[in-house]
Amino acid sequence: MPEIADKFLKQSKLKAFDLAHRNKINFNIGKYNAAFKKGLLQYNNLDLAKSRAANIKNKVVNHLDTYLIDFEQNFTNNGGKVIWAVDAEEARKEILNIIKKHRAKKVVKMKSMTTEEIELNAFLEKQGIESIETDLGEYIVQLANEKPYHIVTPAMHKSKEDIALLFNEKMGWDEGLSPEEITAKVRLKLRDKFYNADIGITGANFLIADTGSIALTENEGNGVLTMAMPPVHIAIAGIEKIIPSINDLDLFWPLLSSHGTGQRMTVYNSIISGPRKGKEIDGPKENYVIILNNKRSELLAQKEQRMALSCIRCGACLNACPVYKNIGGHTYETTYSGPIGSVISPWMLGMKDYKHLSFASTLCGACTEVCPVKIPLHDMLLLNRRDAVAQKHTTSVERIMVKGSSKFLMNRKWMDFFSGKTKRFFISLIIKKLWGNNRKFPPVADQSFHEQWKEKNK
């Protein structure tokens, strides 16, 4: 729908020149950049680690069916239950069936972009089920009735003053509380939620095929509590979250933490292999994994772009992207924003409606450079653009303009037919208007390069 792209352009213009927003993002990404540089110091050969990770994920993506079946068999052998969901609606339905089976009324959630993708919180609320985010950043955006701003740091767009004001409005807490004091109060408030929850819902950073296990990594301890304290644990993950072996975690966990938050390793790392067994005193009595497609197979079918499914959701490409840093995460209006979102969203949500995201890029290659699994993101954006045109998701005016300008720019005689003055007049009249009022238009030379060359060489 054209209105989706139009809204994106309008929101981009507003956010790009919102100085308060830009200052908050620059501050928070600046802190990330400093930590990111330190996090990479643990590697003697970062490129080798990234190449190994890329090779493993490449193998997985090209043999996804085999690894998914291996995971299902091994997880089932561990006592867990695997449910396959074709789309978001089916995933929500399956989760509701589990909740009804256990007569649950209270759910605690660990941060999960997959649950955001299927809009689980809103769905459960309509069913009269309390669903509480337990990650502090997710809890903040849930209180604010917003979507996560960033794959890793959901409340990146808020300053500490914004957050203090939010808790003052929602909880009546003192507006002058420090971040540490707010965190302590939230911890006390959420602790009761863990004790009384009927079901815990998490995502999965990785699904381990050879052991049939779920790998979770986090910094707050809420993931461990969400998984272990309620009697039922549900994990939901996209089909691409598979890694072949538990031995691969020593490669992927440090890559994820160093590129996601700049840490050598995140604070809490858990491996869950089904429900509690025998004399074990903790862990869930029942353990489910919902494996979600939700049009990922559309991307898998693209031989040149399928490697985007290798993404480990570190968010590094967002932090490096000059477009993301100017227009922010909410402008995309997709679960996955930034460069990776611009690559995968057109396939998962529809090329016709979301092709504009692949054009919202400078193609500088910063995203490709920082990717820990070597996804050539800027190349894939170009491939998406090609496919959008090939599928005729462009207007007749665009097609005429591109065809005409291509013929003109590739013909030296036609370009030289107009004098330098005529070209400068055209640029100042039309291009300057498109450049916008909020940016200073660069000066145009009195003579074109071709004119200068002719004059110099007679």
Number of strands: 10
CATH architecture assignment name of the largest domain: 3-Layer(aba) Sandwich
The name of the CATH superfamily of the largest domain reads NagB/RpiA/CoA transferase-like
Mean pLDDT: 93
CATH topology of the largest domain: Rossmann fold
Widest sheet: strand order? 1-10-7-4-2-3
Characterise the protein shown here:
By secondary structure, the protein is α/β, with parallel strands linked by helices. It has three domains: 129 residues, Orthogonal Bundle (Fumarate Reductase Iron-sulfur Protein, Chain B, domain 2); 251 residues, NagB/RpiA/CoA transferase-like (Rossmann fold), CATH 3.40.50; 48 residues, no CATH class. Helix content is 55%, strand content 10%. The protein contains 24 helices and ten strands. It has a six-stranded parallel sheet with strand order 1-10-7-4-2-3, sandwiched between helices. Strands 8-5-6-9 form a four-stranded mixed sheet. A hairpin with a 4-residue loop joins β5 and β6. α2 packs antiparallel against α12 and α16 packs parallel to α20. The radius of gyration is 25 Å and the shape is globular. The N and C termini lie far apart (54 Å).
